[in-house]
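Session log. Operator J.P. requested a structure for one protein chain; no other inputs attached. Running the standard single-chain path with token output.
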Amino acid sequence: MSEEEKVTEASKAAEEKPAKNSVAKEIWEWVYTLAIAIIIALLIKGFIFDIVRVDGSSMFPTLVDNDRLIVTKLGYKPQQGDIIILDSNYKDREEYFDDLAKSEDKDELSYFSKLIESRSMPANLKKKYYVKRIIAMPGQTVDLVDGKVYVDGTLLDEPYYDGVTSSIDPTVEYPITVDEDNVFVMGDNRNHSKDSRSSELGQVPYDAILGKSQVRIWPLTDIGRTK
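Structure written below.
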């Protein structure tokens, strides 16, 4: 091979190396950007807002099956009358974690331990979301009289419902005073709603609340604020 051919081969190799480095760099930049986007999306979904689908008719006619809602989380403080998304299995799951902690001679499980245990826990303890309306706040007293709802002795103004509200669980006695850091909830479709009138759900801890329903985004014909 002549000196000229050697120089030419060396030049080609020098040109190919930066080209390969450029492709690798571009691939890495795409992977990095995608990873950042996924992390940001997960943070937004976990802490700022979420989109949920209504399953069932417990909030009819305010909300109907398959409605899509935007639920805000960040900084949300429960208020009477709010429509909220709650985890109906929260209390049972926390009892499960408490029992595990006791079996390990611990006061409580860490967040990381709960995350690990949640992957193998019984299916009936996994998160299951309900959409309900807050009827009463901590310290307030709920009573059902002649098919009407009274809070602290005053008839509750309910423009979203004009039917009869009755007890659905003979083991639940009224009046009921709402515990600290809990809310009393009902569905707007009172005759077809499993809510705080049932001992199965009972009062809802603040920590079981995912967030507040703000806007219905589907179906398109019913887009608007939920109230």
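Operator note: The chain is about 30% helix and 25% strand.
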